């Protein structure tokens, strides 16, 4: 199998942001390295308590760094989305507290500072972390969610839609057919466009919800089912043609619905579940 | 205070506290 990476537009559309995120918090891993060295030297010298204290301190520093980095990732995801719930666990705050307690305790127990200075160092670390990395986002980004649809409903529906799109994307990577690959790629980007429209105006959700559920679920089922047959090397020309037909019809439906959403049509997007079901069964795909 | 300035101060202070304590801990074992 080729090791070439698949082109996935929309996934990493902010390379600078990704690099900055990758570098953020590296300091928290690098600065405590002398403590690891201290632990190793204590171990070589046979100094039991110094080994335990330095080793424990290094482990706590690393744990704080891992939690902080997770907090940065969560914050990045929150920042790039138009609609997002504030993280339930304040990872950055937890990391800041753990880091300041560890720094204070290391200063007192391993670096021979007196208790007062150690507390001061711990406090300074907490303040420095806050100045450098800021606090966790606390407020839900609810955008312009109005009457008739609650924020929870919107988040739930968008989350469900994104999970289905991710599943289609994953199934797509298992298809070794350039034509279907491009076709699915177009469908995925159209689905993401519809999600973006809903994110900009969540009041569109009630109209689009049924469509999103039915068509994304349909696309996911049909793609996964094709991949399964394909993996068993049981695909036939007929099945390929049927799959292409279904993809065509799904794609044109996505286009239609996107247009309707943009036109601010007051009526529900007319989705007929039976139409898709019947087509899938007729084409013998599911 | 501008955000960049605040971050820079935080970065320097964080490097100073962590670096100081870590190096002191290392010196103590010699």
Sum this structure up briefly.
The complex is a heterodimer of chains A (286) and B (30). With 286 residues, chain A is mainly alpha-helical.
Estimate the strand proportion of chain B. Answer: under 5%
Order of helices and strands of chain A: HHHHHHHHHHH
What is the end-to-end distance of chain B? 42 Å
What structural class is derived from the secondary structure elements of chain B? Answer: mainly alpha
Given as residue ranges, the uncertain stretches of chain A (5+ residues, pLDDT < 50) are 1-12
Overall residue-averaged pLDDT value of chain A: 81
How many strand segments of chain A? Answer: 0
Residues in helices of chain A, as a percent range: over 70%
Characterize the overall form of chain B: rod-shaped
Q: Give average pLDDT of chain B, whole number.
A: 91
Largest interface, counted by CB within 8 Å of the partner chain's CB: A-B, 34 and 23 residues
Give the class of chain A from helix and strand content and strand pairing.
mainly alpha
The unreliable regions of chain B are none
Structure in words:
The complex is a heterodimer of chains A (286) and B (30). Chain A has 286 residues and is mainly α. Chain A has two domains: 15-133, no CATH class; 151-282. Chain A contains eleven helices and no strands. In chain A, α5 packs antiparallel against α6. The radius of gyration of chain A is 26 Å and the shape is elongated. Chain B has 30 residues and is mainly alpha-helical. The longest helix of chain B has 27 residues, at 3-29. The N and C termini of chain B lie far apart (42 Å). Classes of the chains: A mainly alpha (286), B mainly alpha (30). The interface between A and B is medium-sized, with 34 and 23 residues.
């Amino acid at each position: 199998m080729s090791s070439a990476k698949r082109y996935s537009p929309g996934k990493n559309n902010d390379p600078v942001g990704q690099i900055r995120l990758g570098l953020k918090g590296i300091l928290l891993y690098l600065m405590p390295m002398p403590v690891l060295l201290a632990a190793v030297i204590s171990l070589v010298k046979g100094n039991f308590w110094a080994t335990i204290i330095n080793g424990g301190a290094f482990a706590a520093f690393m744990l704080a760094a891992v939690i902080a980095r997770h907090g940065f990732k969560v914050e990045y995801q929150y920042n790039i989305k138009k609609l997002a719930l504030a993280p339930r666990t304040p990872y950055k705050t937890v990391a800041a507290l753990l880091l300041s307690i560890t720094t204070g305790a290391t200063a007192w127990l391993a670096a021979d500072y007196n208790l007062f200075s150690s507390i001061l160092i711990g406090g300074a670390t907490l303040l420095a972390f806050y100045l450098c990395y800021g606090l966790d986002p606390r407020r839900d980004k609810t955008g312009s969610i109005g009457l008739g649809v609650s924020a929870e409903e919107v988040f739930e529906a968008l989350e469900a839609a994104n999970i289905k799109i991710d599943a289609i994307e994953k199934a797509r990577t298992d298809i070794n057919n350039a034509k279907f690959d491009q076709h699915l790629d177009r469908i995925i980007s159209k689905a993401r466009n519809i999600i973006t429209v809903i994110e900009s105006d969540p009041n569109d959700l009630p109209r689009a919800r049924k469509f999103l559920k039915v068509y994304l679920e349909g696309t996911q089922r049909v793609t996964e089912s094709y991949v399964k047959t394909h993996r068993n090397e049981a695909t036939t020309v007929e099945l390929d043609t049927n799959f292409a037909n279904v993809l065509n019809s799904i794609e044109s439906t996505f286009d239609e619905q996107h247009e309707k959403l943009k036109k601010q049509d007051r009526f529900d997007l007319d989705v007929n579940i039976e139409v898709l079901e019947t087509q899938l069964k007729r084409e013998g795909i599911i | 205070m501008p955000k960049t300035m605040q971050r820079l101060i935080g970065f320097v202070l964080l490097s100073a506290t962590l670096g100081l304590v870590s190096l002191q801990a290392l010196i103590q074992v010699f």
